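dumping the sequnces here before i forget
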Amino acid sequence: MVPFILLIIIIGSVLFHLYTPWYSTPIASNWSSIDSTIELTFAMTGAVYVLVLGFMTYCVIKFRSTKNRKADYEPESKKAEVVLTVLTTIGVAGLLAPGLIVWDDYVSPPEEAMPIEAMGQQWYWNFRLPGEDGILGTTDARNISADNPFGMNENDPNGKDDILIEGDTLHLEHDKPVKFLLRSIDVLHNFYVPQFRAKMDLVPGMVTFYWIRPTVTGIYEILCAELCGVGHHAMRGEVQVDEASDYQEWLSDQLTFEAIQEQAMLEKDNKLALSKSN
Amino acid sequence: MSESIIPESELEEVELYHPKSWWTEKVFSQDAKLIAIQYGLTAFAIGFVALVLSWFMRIQIAFPEMAIISEGTYYQFITMHGMIMVVYLLTALFLGAFGNYMIPLMVGARDMVFPYLNMISYWTYLISVLVLFVSFFTPGGPTGAGWTLYPPQAILGGTPGQETGIILMLVSLCIFIVGFTMGGLNYVITILQARTRGMTLMRMPLTIWGIFTATVLALFAFPALFVSAVMMLFDKLLMTSFFMPALVEFGENLTYGGGSPILFQHLFWFFGHPEVYIVALPAFGIVSDLISIHARKNIFGFRMMVWAIVGIGALSFIVWAHHMYVSGMNPYFGFFFATTTLIIAVPTALKVYNWILTLWKGNIHLTIPMLFCLGFIVTFLNGGLTGLFLGNVIVDVPLSDTYFVVAHFHMVMGIAPVLVILGAIYHWYPLITGKMLHDGMGRFHFWVTFVGSYLIYFPMHYLGFIGIPRRYYEMGQTEALYTSSAADLNIFITVAALAVGFAQLVFIFNVFWSAKNGQVAEKNPWNATSLEWRTPEQPPIHGNFGKELPVVYRWAYDYSVPGAEDDFIPQDVPNEKVTLAEGYSELGVEKT
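..and the predicted 3d for all of it:
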């Protein structure tokens, strides 16, 4: 019975992998190289799994205790150990090398990538685009107030034309690389879109990053992937990847920091005028 | 293995403490064996709490519409489940329970070198468990920060238990570490100083090598957790900013500033990764001995096994940041830590090969301990190979923080070591109680536990490929990711988890039932060679050995030696006392 169940486990695991209905979502970014490293790892580890457990099952069948059986006495075999060490090392290096090459790519955003800030707080997302100058203005958590939810540094000219999106939907332009700059104002979060295959934590007090190039238009869900309190599972947002014309249309509807400030001033003046006239 | 000269004893024996009352004999005992049982029962009791928590979590995940527990409770349960299982159950069981029971017996000592300190170690551990347990009944309940306790979240208002739960958790960890340090120093010094004559380091059974190396790791690793717990307590209570940058809590600017949340993660994983091996190395050692004994064959490549344990232990201190690939630390760390992490796979793989090569040409008895060993190899190999996914930095990026991680670490440091613990209990129960555990219940327990756990965790990896994040109270409206078939898989996993849980009840019943009604064990029922079975009484009494301590003439793996009549030669039997098989003039030499 024991070898029989072991065989079912080995064969069952392989069949499960081949026919599973639960596997990666269709990819929507440039990171198909990550998927390839996963496939490579599956092929190598799967082969080792089947070989090692197959051999173990063979041993259980072949060397099971019988009345007159006596085990061999063989303390060690240098040759076997050297061969196995070398083979394992080669296998491990074969996984590591391509992995590090892709990682190098992952941590080296291209020059032309547009910086976009994703800002997390318990338990929703806001976004900031650099505006016409292509540069994001500086921020500080200490500046945050009801009038300045992004903590913008009002003296920084680079921030004037920043586009502030106080909503949970971000639009991206199809096929244009973006460098996400990730900022949290309270606790750790993680900006994760499964279809992009990429993720990184948001850490209060610092700015982290990763980059992607969206390759398929559509709407994708942002999931927070770092425990951030009781609302963690509900901290969602959306990324919508548009064709260039749709993207421009959306962009033209968004307000810059300066415009928002002016609007706020106007409202204040109006209120003041209103209260004076009363 | 050939004999060597047996040295004279270096020191005279010291009289052991003799208990003067029922209290000092049965409760405040200084006998390592009783302390071991106290450790074991306490660890199992609090571990059972963690097991029950997991049932609630699984029911919530499978049937979110029932909302059997609230969000806050869910996060409190995952936190307590994780911390209890890793620290208060596994660490305490392997080092506190198995360490105390096995070290003096297996190295041929009468007790630990500091019996009084050993006793204090247990009672300190008990206090830490009680402090942790009390947090269930405090206002706000236990902390729900996740077992990793990452700041700033752990001490801010969006996390349940931030009133008192987090404080009790940190205090409890500090107490645990104090208690462990007393015990740990004791284990290390006993192994180094109190071995009997002839018990060279390379003649120690691998069980002792595993426990020894794990204890050394723990003595170096736990201080990092201790300081981070103290620093976080300061951040919480004294408003210091070790881990707290300037931040805003629900619209309110707090006075913190300048601290680093990532610093905590480095400290935590500097402890946390060796912790994996603190649990794994004793399991490696024990499983090596069980396989050898029940396959009636010496462990294959003993010296390699020792060096692999020591090497893995050393390497485990330079791989910690593979838990932090997507934490926002300097991305160039990824190159270094991915390389060290994959290097550690080599000695680990060699251990797996050697276990199986021990079975090769063995005489395999499919006893319950051997079944658990086979189950261990399957689950450990599976969990080890998925470690090659997560250790290889770029492959970790899509899988990090998903159910793939949950499945991986449960397989490799939950199920695999627990299977070893259970196998070890079936193996040593006759020594500890003098009775055999019931065989039928044992086999039922093994099959449901092993196959059930595999059915829980093997498919769970694939939820991670879909991209489902861990630590989600419910998936909510996430159609693209969370299809109805994924929901069905979660129901299946929950059913398997409840079945495995039920099997543990059968095991607990068996342990208590057999202590009274079990078949009386023969002396050394498995025909093992190591010294714990060579005591005059079974179970061994205080002082372990008779008037004279045993003298060791050989390693612990003389099974099926050519020329010997029996298929095992105990460590304290010299060559001239071995009964030779027919046709042999001496061991290994046939008559001409």
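Residues 71-107 of chain B form the longest helix (37 residues).
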